[in-house]
Amino acid sequence: MRALVVDPSEPGGLRLVEDHPDPTPPPGEVLVRVDLAGICTTDLEILRGYMAFSGIPGHEFVGTVVRGSEALCGRRVVAEINCVGPDSPARDHNARKHAPDRTVLGIAGRDGAMAQYLTVPAENCHEVPADISDRQAVFVEPLAAACQVLEDHTVCATTRVAVIGCGRLGLLCAQVLATRTHRLEVIGRNPRKLALGRRLGLATRDTGSLEPRADRDLVVECSGSPDGLRLALELVRPRGTIVLKSTYARPAGVDLAPVVIHEIVVAGNRCGPFGHALRLLAARQVRVEELIDGVFPLSRWQEAFAAARDPRKLKILIEPGAT
Questions:
Q1: Which domains, from first to last, does the chain contain?
Q2: Considering only Cβ atoms within 10 Å of each terminal Cβ, which end of the chain, N or C, has fewer?
Q3: In whole angstroms, what is the distance from residue 170 CA to residue 185 CA?
Q4: From CA 162, how far away is CA 235, in angstroms rounded?
Q5: Each residue of 232-253: pLDDT tens digit?
Q6: pLDDT digits (tens, 9 = 90+) for 132-172
């Protein structure tokens, strides 16, 4: 099969392998033909050394099961990325993402979705309803991560929320949070992305015109930069909560004294409930296709990753079966 493989010796940190061995699903797993995969900030950080990953990257995908489960064969699926063996006691998504023996699709110990095929535990798979397109379904993994904020933190109509970052994840998190509160503002630098946020019905503010008032109940940091945490500390109220969504290879180097002085809760937050994400897409409560800025075959991976690094762009997709 054709696959992208992380290779630090290559320009761009990747190489295209035309004859990579097809994966064989072990017991309890399925073989999936990848129909569409997304490039996210974590993938870009992996190419900078994050998690010291080697193998096939990519964890956002929609595909079709071709072998390994009679119930799933021929079905379109998305899949949770934290994988455990059949004997592991970790059976739900929250337990799996912290299981000490887990592998993580395209991130840690397991090949990912930037290839024509992958294997994943059958229990990780969620069937995609017919009324959700591939271009919508490929967003389920990051959308589920956005939904996890609501799983972990109480948000109601009066909750004052700031989302730092107007990129891919920021706009998804903001749309999810806006299903609970309208006292929400997306804060960012990119005029095009902020304008898209407004078209999605979100209030936005440029960081250049921002007056840092420590009055937000909840600040969700999605900027992809350590600078986002510094800004979050200026925006959150005393005894408020900062949710960290960004992952980056370089250390943050942030003064944490305000966390103690103002008794701020700082919470990490990542993978989330796929069922919630699928329901939001089916109900058209979250719009995702407007975030797509390009779809490339694997053979044009260099163009795809260059576009994904471009701060003017949002979501870039790879279609492994295309030529």
A1: 3-139+288-319 (3.90.180.10), 142-268 (3.40.50.720)
A2: C
A3: 11
A4: 8
A5: 999 999 999 999 998 765 666 7
A6: 999 999 999 999 999 999 999 999 999 999 999 999 999 99
